Amino acid sequence: MGVRAEGSPSVNTAFLNRKNGAWLNRLSAAFFALLGVGVIYVLGKAFVDNPSVFTQQVMNGLQLGFIYALIALGYTMIYGIVKLINFAHGDVFMVGSFTSFYAIATMNLHRWPARLWPSMSEGLVVLIGTITVILLSMLVSGILAIVMERFAYRPLRNKPRIAALITAIGVSFFLEYFGALPFVFSNNYITYPRPFEVVVYDAGTIPPAAMIGMWVLFIVSVVTYIVMLVMGKKGNAAAQAWARHPLLQFGMLFGGFLAVVLTLAGVKIEVGGKVWDLSASNVMLVIMGASIILQVGLQYIVTQTKLGKAMRAAAYDKPAARLMGINVDYVIASTFALGGGLAGAAGVLYATAFKQVHHLMGIIPGLKAFVAAVIGGIGSIPGAFVGGLIMGETEVLAAGFISTPMRDAIAFSMLIVVLLVWPQGIFGEPPGEKV
Amino acid sequence: MALLEIKNLYVSYGSIRALHGISFKVEEGEVVTLIGANGAGKTTTLKTISGLLRPDKGQIVYDGVDITRMGADAIVRRGLIHVPEGRRIFAPLTVRENLEMGAFTRKDKHEIEESMERVFTLFPRLKERVEQPGGTLSGGEQQMLAVGRALMAKPRLLLMDEPSMGLAPILVEEIFEIIREINEQGVTILLVEQNAHMAFSVAHRGYVMETGVIQLEGPASELAENPQVREAYLGGG
Q1: If you compute the radius of gyration of chain A from its CA atoms, what whole number of angstroms results?
Q2: Which of A43, A76, A150, A156 could be disulfide-bonded to A384 (CB atoms 3.0-4.6 Å)?
Q3: Which residue does chain A place closest to B131, by CA atoms?
Q4: Torsion over CA of A84, A91, A257 and A125, rounded to 10 degrees?
Q5: ∠ at Cα A116 (A114, A118), nearest 5°?
Q6: Which residues in B lie closer than 8 A to residue A313 (C-beta atoms)?
Q7: Buried b (16+ CB within 10 A) or exposed e, A129-157
Q8: What number is the average pLDDT over the span A32-37?
Q9: Rounded mean pLDDT of A311-332?
Q10: Under-50 pLDDT residues of chain B
Q11: Residue B151: which of B178, B124, B133 has the closest Cα?
Q12: Which pLDDT belongs to residue A8?
């Protein structure tokens, strides 16, 4: 938390001030600026031409972004505690997808409540079944992450960092091509049976009560948050603690995002010949809801439990954490388990959205989530969330309004742009702070 | 039997040997100080006792048990607590969370709460800042937090590494007053200091270290009068 070193600007302009190659650097900066103006023009025009389609795309971007955010959390937590970019994280995500695939396709796990209690209502069966599938995938992915840490990374912990990084790439290839074996996942694209049927909601089918309920949840938590913040400023220690409480974050995020999406989809207006008529599928709502619940759950573990506090302590200073009696190895393994679990859940959500699983499916989402973590500031949990949303939006808007084949190229170029102007990311700490 | 006994301890960093067979004892209830110049091996000694470093040979016996090869967390569980050099508080964690980390090995929530109240009576300023991140505290407050955090573990033996480092003279007095108070409550203290003058004022006995060996030992009052010690550590005269 220390004071930023004198003369180190938060925005990196050093590349403009260098003597050597200054001319070219200015040219490239101008090029990027021009490109930025162009992008804003294209997106603005698309919005003005057809606000309904544009907003629908923004909602689709949210859906993807919430998945990336879940994966990005794993990158950022693991980096935070062992300073390792776990390149095999995307493959943990893939294993999560396949776990849920087998659970659904061969074990019919998503229907288990119906087999035990045939009289149970269909909605409840789907809800419990889906949650069970997600939990199983989280468990398997979490265990995989622990095994990975124990056998591949822990032996290298006191070696130069590059050794563990290269090992991570090796582990990644191992999982990908071990999965390609015919008796494992095979190298085919496999159609994924969703644990629930897709239902699309629009103005006619969204109950106003759900909409109003979400708005109430959102407004109540925002007001509570502001009250706690003001009381905290006046020196009330309990209010300071409450202002940070994950319950309020849950209310604000869950209420806020769902209220906005339900309202956007639940309202139908016609202005000057243009029709505003959006829809939200239950897949989208499940992804947003599950992602927010898991992220707030993580926030709860990290800020309120003994294990989470030990994680933050160990991330900051491992020898000092050991002097507190904290078993740092155990804490690191738990961090891998949590990150892996979130990736596993993301795998289920991703497969549900795109209806396909493949042994290489983890590479691109994994890399995008890595970029998301860097954009948000690697090591920062809110950063992973914001970065994930930025990456999701970039990809979907680029595909929708700029160029569909270039969607990945544009999404990845965000990394270059962010590293140029904001090297530590949005929520990242300035470099060289921890002494 | 001594509470802590170090027997012929050798420690190296890679191929560089830092401790060349030191031996000393700390009796229950004492304040023992270890003084010496930079690089004498004081901090190395403490880190080895608390399990952060592994000795090449030698033995560390605490409370009748050989703890030489024990892990740092197991040592903490036995009530041997190390307040590291440079305070090393957890800057992103709040004052309360820092104190909770100090009590990491304890289970009883009620007792932990009691210990926290005791820390707050010792350091009222920490109570005012209980929800602030530790990194926002001043140097003196951070030292208080580091000591408070160690007390949260219910120590029997406290290893303190340069508690006066980087503090204003008035705060140094305050910290040493608190060290005396903690000792009077029954905690044994092994104190490493460069400020020999202050160290001798609270200690019962002392050891003088030089380049990895113990040169002198004796009651603090005698060491303070020793011409060699006065020459080297107490500013001559």
Answers
A1: 23
A2: A76
A3: A237
A4: -140
A5: 45
A6: 90, 93, 97, 101
A7: bbebbbebbbbbbbbbbbebbeebbbebb
A8: 89
A9: 95
A10: 237
A11: B178
A12: 45
Q: Chain B contact for A302, CB < 8 A?
A: no
User: Does A234 lie at the interface with B, CB-CB under 8 angstroms?
Assistant: no
Selection from A39, A8, A51 nearest residue A267 by Cα: A51
- B52 inside 8 A of chain A by CB: yes
List of residues 6+ apart from A109 with CB closer than 8 A? A103, A129, A132, A133, A136
| Cα four-point dihedral sign A228, A233, A235, A241 | positive
Over residues A53-108, the pLDDT tens digits come to 999 999 999 999 999 999 999 999 999 999 999 999 999 999 999 999 999 999 99
Q: Exposed e or buried b for every residue in A254-272, given b needs 16+ CB within 10 A?
A: bbbbbbbbbbbbbeeeeee
pLDDT of A241:
84
Contacts of A203 (CB under 8 A, 6+ apart): A265, A266, A267, A268, A277
Start-to-end CA distance of chain A, whole Å, equals 11
- Per domain, the residue ranges of chain B are 4-88+156-233
Report how far residue B197's alpha carbon sits from residue B202's, in angstroms, rounded to the nearest whole number: 9
Report how far apart, in Å, the C-alpha atoms of A148 and of each of A151, A155, A161 are: 6, 11, 16
| pLDDT tens digits, A341-357 | 999 999 999 999 999 99
- The predicted structure's pLDDT at residue A431: 57
Strands, E, within A40-198: which ranges? 190-191
Q: Which of B73, B82, B84 sits opposite A326 (nearest CB)?
A: B73
Please list the residues that pair with A356 across neighbouring strands. A191
Which residues neighbour A206 within 8 Å (Cβ) at sequence distance 6 or greater?
A262, A265, A266, A280
Answer yes or no: are the C-beta atoms of A384 and A73 closer than 8 Å: yes
Question: What gap in Å lies between CA A89 and CA A72, rounded to an integer?
Answer: 9
- What is the pLDDT at residue A11? 56
Question: At how many degrees (to 10) do helices A51-82 and A282-304 cross?
Answer: 30
Query: The tokens 């608390």 sit on which residue?
Result: B50
ipTM value for the complex: 0.91
Query: Could you tell me which residues are beta bridge partners of residue B25?
Result: B5
Q: Is A269 helix (H, G, I), strand (E, B) or coil?
A: strand
CB contact under 8 Å between A309 and B93, yes or no, is yes
CA distance A158 to A221: 45
- As its CATH architecture, domain B4-88+156-233 has 3-Layer(aba) Sandwich (3.40)
What is the dihedral angle through the alpha carbons of A61, A62, A64, A69, rounded to the nearest 10 degrees? Answer: 130
**Residues linked to residue A201 through DSSP beta bridges, in sequence order:** A280
Q: What is the DSSP string of B63-132?
A: TTEE-TT--HHHHHHTTEEEE-TT----TTSBHHHHHHHHTTT---HHHHHHHHHHHHHH-HHHHHTTTS
Of B73, B93, B135, nearest to A312 by CB-CB distance is: B93
Distance in angstroms (rounded) separating the CA atoms of residues A205 and A199: 10
Residue A426 to chain B, least CA–CA distance (Å): 18
Beta strands in A63-207 (DSSP E): 190-191, 200-201
Structure tokens at A386: 């914001």
CA distance A110 to B8: 65
